[in-house]
Amino acid sequence: MEPVGADLPKLLGKYELVEFLGGGMSHVYRAVDTVLGRTVAVKILLNAYGADPDARIRFLNEAKVAASLIHENVISVYDFGQEEGLPYLVMEFLHGQSLRKLIGDGRPLSLVEKLHIALQTARAVEYVHGRGVVHRDIK
After folding, report:
1. FRET partner for 38 with CA separation of 20 to 30 A, picked from 15, 28, 45, 76?
2. Which of 24, 22, 72 is nearest to 45 (CA)?
3. What is the pTM for the complete model shown?
4. Tens digits of per-residue pLDDT, 12-41?
């Protein structure tokens, strides 16, 4: 199974993929947990990387580390699984816009808004680094 794009929705285990959100080595989708009825984010390791044992191990390790982190500024991990040979990670879905979009919209941010964003980011990085994790993809 190759992760889906335009032909959504698609079931991945109990998760119904409803919108492609982006990705690189993996694809991330907004999805619905069909059992609990909540919106989640599902990150699927692509076939090209899923066949590489080292990439699969890194992906599983990412899931384990992320699942151990509980902080208001760090996304929560709910589940990990594999469907037709593709590993996937299920995470909390955050509503709102990305920082990239916020900056790209061109609306000037007030000093208070900038400091609020910087403080939330710093708290998350401090928490994660305090647990020995170096995050190389902060969003």
Report:
1. 45
2. 24
3. 0.82
4. 999 999 999 988 888 999 999 999 999 999
Q: Measure the CA–CA gap between 81 and 127, rounded to whole angstroms.
A: 26
In this predicted model, what pLDDT tens digit does every residue of 62-86 receive, in sequence order? 889 889 999 999 999 999 998 887 8
Euclidean distance between the first and final Cα of the chain, in Å? 28
What does DSSP say about strands 10-12 and 26-33: parallel, antiparallel, or unpaired? unpaired
Question: What is the token pair recorded at 71?
Answer: 């902080």
Can 137 be counted among the known catalytic residues? yes
Q: Give Cα separations from 119 to 106, 115, 122 (angstroms).
A: 21, 6, 5
Catalytic residue among 7, 52, 79, 137: 137
- The percentage of the chain sitting over the pLDDT mark of 90, rounded to a whole number, equals 48
Q: Are strands 77-83 and 39-45 parallel, antiparallel or unpaired?
A: unpaired
